[in-house]
Amino acid sequence: MKEQGAKERIISTACDLFYKQGYQATGINQIIEEAGIAKASLYQHFPSKEALLNEYLLITRLNNYEHLLQFTAKMHPGKQKLMGLFECRLERMETSNFKGCAFIRIAYELPGLNQEATAQVHAHTQGLKTFIEEQLLVIKHSFPKGELREMTDMLLNLYEGAGLQGYIQRSVKPMEDTKKVVRKLIATL
Amino acid sequence: MKEQGAKERIISTACDLFYKQGYQATGINQIIEEAGIAKASLYQHFPSKEALLNEYLLITRLNNYEHLLQFTAKMHPGKQKLMGLFECRLERMETSNFKGCAFIRIAYELPGLNQEATAQVHAHTQGLKTFIEEQLLVIKHSFPKGELREMTDMLLNLYEGAGLQGYIQRSVKPMEDTKKVVRKLIATL
DNA sequence: GTCTATACAGTGATAGAC
DNA sequence: GTCTATCACTGTATAGAC
């Protein structure tokens, strides 16, 4: 990891710790220690801890989205890719130790979120909605607009709700069950 | 508020602040200031801030549950009470400034939650499940066991997912939409 | 650019007077 | 039981030497 520049080490360490421990529970001191750099060097690259938070959210969002696209790249648009969304998260829950959606965690941890961070949270949600909507339109080309939005929101709720329950119960079961339910739901379309 | 004992003032202030601002963001100093008592008095009644957290979760859980029971007291068991669960939260979102489910917030804010606090979170979830299951059994007396659990979990996911989206978007719309979807879902039972 | 050393506010928690 | 005063510690952020 030493061959990376200081800034890169700071970012990757901060992203890791912010997600694992939470933003507030992670101190600057821990970040610089694990990144192996001095405190002043951190403030050379980032004016404040909050700036680091914004960077964390941006990078995490892009990574999550990129991962989803790769995961579903070879799937057929429509039902298969829609199921892929759930399988993608299920895989994350099985391989890494899943701590819930990073953006929901931040929104819950910091009731007074700054403007840029809020924008990232919304962008993440909107990205999911768009992905879901696209697949739904492939499945049923002539979706009435109101029903499309309704179905999209319901699937999003199920997706986030299952992730949430899975984290709280420390189990992949809620997500597996939700996957089955979703499969049934879209089978009728 | 002055006629209440010191302990009661501490508890009600802490409950209020922990929910509004989060646990970590709320300092002992703010609690004692708003409660109008001295710091040493607080530690007379509670050995630590963490003890206050456990008290907060217990009281919030009992209050939430009590409120739900009162809200649905005059409704018919079954479909009406099940819809009442969603209407109850909808009402809370409209009247008070809803910050999401208190237990999910705590679970997300503190990845390393103590045993008693974890138990409260689980008890809350279990309480919701039991409530939902009871109504489902009234609706359809001969529910296959697997499907009953499946349906219960799905409704719980929708309930929590909608609360979550509602908080993030600062809108009651996700919960209203979810209510409609749930009404359709249980209409077919 | 990166380091050491430090500033300064804020935290949770205690001691001891009244 | 409740207060004032203070503890030891950690938090973020900066100054100044190399």
Q: Could you describe the 3D structure shown?
A:
Two copies of one chain form a homodimer. With 189 residues, chain A is mainly α. Chain A folds into two domains: 46 residues, Homeodomain-like (Arc Repressor Mutant, subunit A), CATH 1.10.10; 139 residues, Orthogonal Bundle (Tetracycline Repressor, domain 2). Helix content of chain A is 76%, strand content 0%. Chain A has nine helices and no strands. In chain A, helix 5 packs across helix 7. The longest helix of chain A has 25 residues. The mean pLDDT of chain A is 95. The first copy, chain A, binds a DNA duplex (18 and 18 nucleotides) through helix 3.
The multimeric state of the shown protein is homodimer
Computed over alpha carbons, the radius of gyration of chain A is 19 Å
How many beta strands in the DSSP annotation of chain A?
A: 0
End-to-end separation of chain A: 49 Å
The shape of chain A is elongated
What is the CATH fold-level name of the largest domain in chain A? Tetracycline Repressor, domain 2
Largest interface, and how many residues on either side?
A-B, 38 and 38 residues
Number of helices of chain A: 9
Number of domains of chain A: 2
Low-confidence stretches of chain A: none
CATH architecture assignment name of the largest domain in chain A = Orthogonal Bundle
Fraction of helical residues of chain A: over 70%
The CATH homologous superfamily of the largest domain in chain A corresponds to Tetracycline Repressor, domain 2
For the record, what CATH class of the largest domain in chain A applies?
Mainly Alpha
SSE order of chain A in H/E notation? Answer: HHHHHHHHH
Helix-and-strand structural type of chain A: mainly alpha
Protein name (chains A, B): TetR family transcriptional regulator
Organism (chains A, B): Chitinophaga niastensis
Keywords (chains A, B): DNA-binding, Transcription, Transcription regulation
Pfam families (chains A, B): TetR_N (PF00440)
